[in-house]
Structure formats: C-alpha cells, structure tokens
Amino acid sequence: MIATENDAYQESFNQFQTEQSATAPAWLTELRQAAMTRFTELGIPTKRIEDWRFTNVKSLAAKPYQNVQSISLASGDAEELLQRAKLDDSFHRLVFVNGHYVSQWSTQHELPEGVVIENLASSIRENSGDLQERLSLETSDEAAAFIALNTAFVNDGALIDIPEGVVLDRPIHLIFLSVESGQTVCHPRNLIRLGKGSRAAVIESYLGREGEGYFTNAITQIELDKSADLDHHKLQHEQTDSLHVASTHIDQKDSSEFRSHYFSFGSLMARNEINCMLDGGEIVATLNGLYMPTGEQLMDCRTRIDHAKPNCNTYELYKGILDDHAKGVFNGKIFVHQDAQKTDAKQSNQALLLSDDAVVNTKPQLEIYADDVKCTHGATIGELDENALYYLRSRGVSKDLARKMLIFAFANDVVQGVEIPAVRQHLETILLSSHGLPDV
Amino acid sequence: MLEIKNLHARSEDTEILKGINLSVAAGEVHAIMGPNGSGKSTLAHVLAGREDYEITEGEVTYDGKDLLDMEIEERAAEGVFLAYQYPVEISGVSNKYFLKAAINSIRKHNEQPLISRGDFVAMLKEKLALLGMDKSMMDRSVNEGFSGGEKKRNEILQMAMLEPKLAILDETDSGLDIDALKIVSEGVNALRSPERAIVVVTHYQRLLDYIVPDKVHVLAGGKIVRSGDKSLALELEDKGYSFLNEGTEAVAAS
C-alpha cells in the first residue's frame, strides 16, 4: 500500500467514526463516510489546480494533524486566549475549544421567543429539524476537498435560527480557540438561518496558542430569507504558525441584505472564501475585507458572487497591506446570470506593498450573461500616494510619520465600515498596535 | 526674507522657469500674476519643495539659508507654507490629528515644547471662528468630501494654525464665490504682520481687492516680465494679458 498524505486523516477518521458510532444517527454516519470518500478522491489541492496556483496549501495541510476528541482546559492558555477574544459582555457568546463547545464560557442573554442560539452537537443529539439536509452542503467549488473534509468530521459549531420578524438587538459572538498541544485540527461548522424580515449580527473570532502549528478548517453556512438582514464579521487572529482554511456560503432571498466584514491578521497561511448566491430580486450584498500579512505569511482571499435574479446590488472592497516577504492573493469572481438584468456590481481591490519582497496576485473575474447590467471592477497595487505624502510633508510632518498616517488611513477606511462599536474599537486597537499612529 | 536669483526649473523635458529673480522682504505682500501656463504654480511648488521639478540653475535664499537644499518638511518647519490650488484629500486621517501632527512636528524641529491638548483646542476654536468653519469639519478626513470653497478655507485654517513666516497662496481665489472670497481674504489679512511675508499667486486681480499687495509681478513664459505696485494689477484687469506677450518677446529678443 502506498502511503499518502491522506493517511493521517483516514486513520483519524476511522477512530472518530468508531467513537461516534454509539451516539450518531445513522444518516450522519453515512454522510460523514460519503464525505470522507469524496475527500480521498479529491485529495488535498496542489498548485497545479488553477485556483490554488499561488497558495501551496499542500505543504501545510498534509501534516499528520490530530482530531481532538476531548478537551481538558487544564492549562491557563485557553482562558488567556478567551480574554483576548472577548469583545463585549453584553453579546451572546458561544465558545469552542479545539472544535468542542464549552458551555461554562458561553453566555446566553434573554432571547426573543423562537430564537435558537445553540451548539451543533446538541442539535445533533436531539436530531432536530432538517439538519441532514443542511449539512449536505453540495458544492462544486474550489474548496471542495476541504468542505468534504469538514463534513467528514462534522461534529460541532454554532447553530443560529432567527425566526420571522425578530430583530436581535445583541450581536452573537462565536469564538474558536485552538489550545490543545500537538498538531491539532478542528472542523467547526456553523449554520445560521434568518427568517423573513429578521435581523442579526454575528462575529466569528479565531485564535490559537503558539506551538507546533495547528489547522482550522471551518465552514459557515448562512441562509437569509426574504428581507432578512445580517451583519457578519470575521476576525482571523490565528497563531502565525497555523493553517486556516475557511469558506462562508450565503444564500439570499428577495430583498435581503448581507454585509460581510473580513479581517485577516493571523495564520501562516489563510485561505478564506466567501460565496454569495443572490437567489432573488432586490438583494444587497456588501463584502469588505482587510488583510495585513507580514513576515512569511500568505493570505488568500476569494469571493464569488452569483447574480441569479434581476435588480440586485453588490459592493465589494478588499484592501491588503503587505510587508516583509508576505504574499497576498485576491480573487473576486462575479457571475451575472442570464436572468439577472439591472444588476449593479462594483468590485475594488487595493493592495499596498510596503516592502520590495512582498507580492500580491490579484484577479478580478467577471462573467456576464445578461445585457442590461452595470459591472465595474478595479484593482490597484502600489506604494503610498506621492501627492498625499508631499502634502503632509509640506505641512511639516516628517516623511516617516506621513507614511504611517497614510498606511493607517488606508486600512482605517475598511475598519470604519464596521458598525458595531466594540468590534470597531477592537480593530482600531490592533491597527494602532501594528501600524499605529503615535500620539502627536 | 526670500531672495530668488536666476531660478531655472524643468519638469521632465520641459523648461518651465527660465530665470526668475524676485526679492520679498518681511512684512510685504507680493502678488504674482500671469496667464495660464506661465509657471506661477511651478514657482510656488518649487519653493515648497515638490520633487517633480528639477532645478537646473539659480538659487533661493530664505532667511539667509539655502532653501533648495532643505527637505520638504524642513522648509515647512522653518516657516514656509504653501496654500494649494488643489488641496489633497486624505481619506482616513482626521483634520484634527493632521493639524496637531503638523504643529508638533514643526515645534519638535524647532526644539520648542509640544502644544498641549487644551491649548490646541483653544487655538483651533479661535481660528475656526475666524474662517467661519464648523468644528465638526475637524473630525472629518482631511479635505475629503469638502466643497471647493471648504478646501480653500481649510488651507487658510492650516496657515492660521501653523503661523508661517512665508506664506505662498496658489490661486486661493479659484472656485470661491464672493462671500467665501471675503472670508478667506479676511483670514489672510489677519495674518499680515511685520515679521511675515505673503506671496499671492493669482490669475485674476479680484483677490487683490481684498488682499492688497505692496508689489505686483507679472510672470510670463517662465520669467518675471514686469513689476510694479498695485496699480499694475488694475492695468492687467483692464487690458488683459495679451499685450504682455509682445513685451515678453521683446525682452526675449533683446
């Protein structure tokens, strides 16, 4: 038998299935098995695959990662990370450590009737609702192998259901920590569903401890019914020796509104995909992102927007600040299907290179099959604006401070798009500590 | 205070300034007028230190020092201020932070104590009132989303806050309606003092009705072709610049 890089996953999977066999419903055992078979067929993507050309994920994904079956929380690391992750005690909070829900660290304030905020493992135990259907995420996209791998090990994550007409006033904060020692992997799966006209805000935070390098392979699935409104934030603060692969899938119905704010600071390699399916009319989707790799970090940001029906507007702004030997990849796909007349799609990707050794590969990709549409895209890669530097310096500001001001301003633009004050302040603090403005 | 001798400057392959001679003493207000493309703005930016221009000949002495040898920020710290014709928008940096950074950078350069928050706020309040500006503008990004008139006022506000020794106003009147022109002029006039020199670069004479110059120079074809008192500005207003062209050629031919 030829040893392959998948052996460690296979071995880990066999063990996982055995442990789960007593409690898992039959459909889930089958679903996991089918997903594992699919993963084995697909294998870890290589650089020969176009969508992974710039991101050599195999070098990090093909390690013998251990699936953590139980967590101890004995060391103080988890608690310390939790303190760093916390944003505001008034938020609903679900905390996961190495993929497992930790109830004693989670908080649920009083909820309007019908609202469900719980962890997926409990929902599986109760075998409630239409979980089988929701977990069978059919996808043909480029992250298929990692989606299959997540499904093979699907076990826990957040499950959020907001019924029709409910406006949830407190944001829901999901915190994912990797703290167990060794090369660990976790596969969080989050299911978020908003009923007609409902409204909510969700924040996902990812952090981990320093060690031998861990792997987070996350999926978030979002369904927005007619006129629903979701403000979604992702704060990627993984340890700089880790691998983070994640995809967020959004399915939107008529007149719904979705705003995504993605902030990428951590990981050695981070691949984030956002797939928006606009399956209705009058939909608005806004995708904003900021990625700031330094050192040897690689950050790969991918978005795909499918305009399937008429009269939808999408706005996309991604900014990158790259220093040292960092690499960045931006790929923004927009598909305007034949029925999607009166589409208005705007996409902009701007990258700032602070070092001669930093590299960014940017690729807007528009495919338009309707004839009455407005689609614009722009990509700029460059250094700081000479005119602005001159203006600042001509007021007495030193060249060094002028540069700092412009870098801060470049990033701050995306940060100011965040509406939740605690999240915005958190980001401002990070920005100030890395590309901070001195007190003047 | 400012002594320009035989200044030649080029941008890429085009020679724009072809031997400027100008002497400005403290306490004076000089107006530099001239048709479009005569080199007025280039002169203003060469003095501020813009790096797009190459100085091929001549010298500029400011307060006894070689101005052309100084970095852009050093010139500002030594008291040179340029009010831009097209102020730059800087998204994400608030006016307030920018102004305080500028004041304290200049103070640091001059080994003066930094301005306290309280003093800064008080000074800002006073200058905002002088220019009829709302304080909410100070929390907005530098010039971002400002109207043409607001940008020009903001330039003069910066000037009032930085209290330069040599202020150069580049087409400050362009894009201003008559009310804004009056306010901006009052702001400039408030800064007139025996220690300060002001150079007003303008295409039209109407600004000079409000900021009355001691001397007027006409720049054409990269040279100063005529100098006189404020009556020269009125003569230009009356006859236009066309009659000067003949004069320029005559000078060039002689």
Q: What's the arrangement of strands in the largest beta sheet of chain B?
A: 6-9-10-3-11-12
Domain count of chain B: 1
Total helical elements of chain A: 10
Structural class of chain B: alpha/beta
Q: Report the strand count of chain B.
A: 12
Rg of chain B to the nearest angstrom? Answer: 18 Å
Task: Count helical runs of chain B.
Answer: 9
Report the span from N to C terminus of chain A. 66 Å
SSE series of chain B: EEEHEEHEEHHEHEHEHEEHH
Distance between the termini of chain B: 31 Å
How much of the sequence lies in strands of chain A comes to 35-45%
How is the biggest beta sheet of chain B arranged?
Answer: 6 strands, mixed
Q: Just name the CATH architecture of chain B.
A: 3-Layer(aba) Sandwich
How much is the average pLDDT of chain A? 93
Query: How many separate structural domains of chain A?
Result: 2
**Shape of chain A from CA axes?**
globular
Fraction of helical residues of chain A: 10-25%
Q: List the chains of the largest interface with their residue counts.
A: A-B, 25 and 32 residues
What does this entry look like structurally?
The complex is a heterodimer of chains A (440) and B (254). With 440 residues, chain A is α/β, with parallel strands linked by helices. Chain A has two domains: 7-279, no CATH class; 386-440, no CATH class. Chain A has ten helices and 21 strands. In chain A, the strands form two sheets. In chain A, strands 1, 4, 5, 7, 8, 10, 12, 14, 16, 18 and 20 form an eleven-stranded mixed β-sheet that branches. In chain A, helix 8 (386-393) crosses helix 9. The longest helix of chain A is centred in the N-terminal third of the chain and has 17 residues, at 26-42. Chain A is globular, with a radius of gyration of 22 Å. The termini of chain A are far apart. Chain B is of the alpha/beta class. Chain B is globular. In chain B, the strands form three sheets. In chain B, strands 6-9-10-3-11-12 form a six-stranded mixed β-sheet, with helices on both faces. Chain B has one domain (2-253): 3-Layer(aba) Sandwich (Rossmann fold), CATH 3.40.50. Chain B contains nine helices and twelve strands. The interface between A and B is medium-sized, with 25 and 32 residues.
